[in-house]
């Protein structure tokens, strides 16, 4: 049992062996998987072919260089900024440091003390050359790119079927939009077999023409993991696809040739789903807005109809027979008051004249009295016709108004012996066609009404009908 080692013991022994064998080394490689977290440390890998060396450049070791670390030459123009702040993926650099084992992950890594750029790596050079060539051919032109449909109902996703990218895409799409049909074309998304499979899937999508949009997605990874999407064959297949292509490859910092060629490029696979479908609360807010607008329009319509009804009611009251009678009664009262006032004024003047004459007669003596009496008699004789004329005019006006009132009275014909027949609903009947045997009938008379049932209808020759039965 003494030969059994714990995990810690094995790791410590490996670390001691590595650190003892490589206390300080210089390593050349191409930068990949570069990461700068908020701690200030820099994490990256040095790549050569299929081999990777994980490296960490701690913030305390990131110092500006006053001399060339390879030759020892002092910079005449002053210190150079530390490479940790400027290096990028694809760049070939030379690092100096020590090798150690990171026990938490059981991985060996390099602790970097110095670094110097040596130029861009072959992969990065190849990427830039292809990017320039395809751009010159117009594959990246914005004018030829098509808009991505909003709220599509049919979406074709080209990706690895078991990856995190498709899980995130489906999870996001299930909480957004109004529902859509999603089909998956499974393809490898890294390695040498990935480009031809992706090309074949894009050509198949174009031939079937089922989808409204094609989503080409893949999760994050190293530069070499994402290299299939920098393949020229994939770029040209995306360019030829007759259906709009939405690319969601890697993380926000990753940019591939496919991103430049696609009709639209999303930052991540999840972002691709967010671009295709809106959040559902947006639709709920839109429905609320429509409901509010409908209620406001309904209120305005009701207000307008109420105003029109009020105007129509006022006009109907002005045109009704009752209103006409009321206005004529007011007119008659005004005429009567004016005639009474005129007669009273005339009588007052004549009385005053007679009183004056009487006074004059009394003061002038008997002769004058006799003369005054005669003048009074003559005046009364002249006044009598005027009184009769005024009285007669007043009586004639009153009689005329009474006749007009009687003519307008709807019950006057009933008092003269006529009757009005109404149907079961109370509507006045003006023709025998408005009733039939067996229906109820109401006959209005001056002093009441008679209720009965029609047993027969007789039509006159002018109505073009024959007698059906005698009405009783």
Verbal overview:
- This protein is α/β, with parallel strands linked by helices.
- 44% of the residues lie in helices and 19% in strands.
- The chain contains ten helices and 13 strands.
- It has a five-stranded mixed beta barrel with strand order 1-2-3-5-4.
- Helix 3 packs parallel to helix 7 (269-276) and helix 4 (194-208) runs parallel beside helix 5 (232-240).
- The protein is elongated and about 175 Å long.
- 19% of the residues are buried.
- The mean pLDDT is 83.
- InterPro entries: Exonuc_VII_L, Exonuc_VII_lsu_C, OB-fold_nuc-bd_dom.
- Keywords: Coiled coil, Cytoplasm, Exonuclease, Hydrolase, Nuclease.
Please count the beta strands (DSSP E, at least 2 residues each).
13
From the spread of the alpha carbons, the general shape counts as: elongated
Distance between the termini: 131 Å
Low-pLDDT segments: none
Mean pLDDT over the full residue set:
83
Give me the strand/helix succession.
HEEEEEHEHEHEHEHEHHHHEEE
Reported for the largest beta sheet, the result is: 5 strands, mixed, barrel
How many helices? The count is 10
Question: Radius of gyration in whole Å, from Cα?
Answer: 56 Å
Q: Provide the helix percentage.
A: 40-55%
What portion of residues belong to β-strands?
Answer: 15-25%
- List the strand order in the largest sheet: 1-2-3-5-4
- State the secondary-structure class: alpha/beta
Family: Belongs to the XseA family.
Keywords: Coiled coil, Cytoplasm, Exonuclease, Hydrolase, Nuclease
Enzyme class: hydrolase
Subunit structure: Heterooligomer composed of large and small subunits.
């Amino acid at each position: 049992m003494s030969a059994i080692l714990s995990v810690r013991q094995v790791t410590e022994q490996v670390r001691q062996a590595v650190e003892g064998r490589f206390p300080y080394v210089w390593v050349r490689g191409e930068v990949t998987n570069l990461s700068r977290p908020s701690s200030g440390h820099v994490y990256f890998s040095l790549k050569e072919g299929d081999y990777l060396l994980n490296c960490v450049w701690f913030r305390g070791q990131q110092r500006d260089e006053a001399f060339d670390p390879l030759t020892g030459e002092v910079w005449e123009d002053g210190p150079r900024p530390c490479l940790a702040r400027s290096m990028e993926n694809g760049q070939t650099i030379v690092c100096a440091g020590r090798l150690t084992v990171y026990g938490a992950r059981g991985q060996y890594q390099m602790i970097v003390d110095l670094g110097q750029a040596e130029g861009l790596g072959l992969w990065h050079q190849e990427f830039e050359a292809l990017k320039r060539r395809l751009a010159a051919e117009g594959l990246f032109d914005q004018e030829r790119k098509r808009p991505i449909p909003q709220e599509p109902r049919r979406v074709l996703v080209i990706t690895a079927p078991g990856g995190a990218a498709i899980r995130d895409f489906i999870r996001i799409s299930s909480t957004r939009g109004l529902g859509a049909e999603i089909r998956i074309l499974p393809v490898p998304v890294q390695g040498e077999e990935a480009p031809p499979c992706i090309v074949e899937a894009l050509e198949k999508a174009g031939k079937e023409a089922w989808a409204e949009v094609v989503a080409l997605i893949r999760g994050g990874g190293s530069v070499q993991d994402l290299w299939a999407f920098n393949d020229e064959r994939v770029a040209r297949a995306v360019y030829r696809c007759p259906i709009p292509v939405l690319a969601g490859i890697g993380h926000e910092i990753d940019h591939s040739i496919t991103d430049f060629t696609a009709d639209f490029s999303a930052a991540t696979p999840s972002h691709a789903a967010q671009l295709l479908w809106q959040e559902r609360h947006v639709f709920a807010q839109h429905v609320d807005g429509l409901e509010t607008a409908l209620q406001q329009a309904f209120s305005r319509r009701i207000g307008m109809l109420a105003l029109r009804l009020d105007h129509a009611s006022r006009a109907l009251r002005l045109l009704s027979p009752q209103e006409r009678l009321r206005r004529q009664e007011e007119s008659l009262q005004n005429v009567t008051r004016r005639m009474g006032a005129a007669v009273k004024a005339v009588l007052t003047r004549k009385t005053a004249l007679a009183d004056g004459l009487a006074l004059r007669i009394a003061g002038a003596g008997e002769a004058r009295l006799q003369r005054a009496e005669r003048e009074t008699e003559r005046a009364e004789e002249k006044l009598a016709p005027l009184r009769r004329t005024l009285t007669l005019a007043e009586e004639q006006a009153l009689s005329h108004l009474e006749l007009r009132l009687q003519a307008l009275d709807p019950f006057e014909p009933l008092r003269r012996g006529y009757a009005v027949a109404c149907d079961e609903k109370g509507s006045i009947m003006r023709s025998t066609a408005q009733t039939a045997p067996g229906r109820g009938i109401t006959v209005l008379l001056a002093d009441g009404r008679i209720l009965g049932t029609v047993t027969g209808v007789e039509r006159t020759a002018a109505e073009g009908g024959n007698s059906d039965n005698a009405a009783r």
